[in-house]
Specification:
single chain, alpha/beta, 7 strands
């Protein structure tokens, strides 16, 4: 990956996921706790990430999606849609996909990736949606990865 993105994991994702991203994939990942963001609002985190221009927030919280849709990127977002699950299961689903998701977000016209994880362990394939800016202020269109 030519661009070196910083991955900021939201408080709703365990710091162990950031550790595994570093240890197993050599990604530049940081948990909300190591960044001391655990007591900040989503808007404050957005404001802190915006000036650097190279932050991808990974969250299970829809508020970041709404902020980036309304106020624009950077930062970019991987929005994980999954119910409660243990860290090992979450990592087993994210690990095979994370580098491709980062690569897709490296495209200038993609700001948000919705990563839909189905807790049905019989279905090994997650679903994706990619959000691209469209003409007009603060409007976006979605396209499913299955359509690509």
């Amino acid at each position: 990956m030519p661009h070196s993105w910083m991955l900021w994991l939201d408080v709703n994702i365990s710091p162990v996921i950031a550790k595994w991203m570093i240890d197993e994939l050599a990604l530049n990942a940081h948990s909300a706790y190591t960044l001391q963001l655990y007591d900040k609002t989503d808007f404050e985190i957005y404001q802190m990430a915006k000036p650097s221009g190279d932050v991808i927030i990974i969250s299970k919280d829809v508020d970041f999606s709404e902020l980036i849709t309304r106020l624009g990127a950077p930062p970019k977002l991987i929005n994980i849609n999954i119910g409660n699950c243990d860290n090992r299961y979450l990592w087993s689903r994210i690990k095979p996909q994370i580098q491709d998701l980062i690569r897709r977000l490296s495209c200038a016209d993609i700001d948000i990736v919705d990563f839909q994880l189905v807790l049905n362990r019989l279905s090994p394939w997650p679903a994706f949606s990619f959000w691209r800016p469209t003409p007009g202020p603060n409007t976006f269109q979605s396209s499913s990865a299955r359509d690509k």
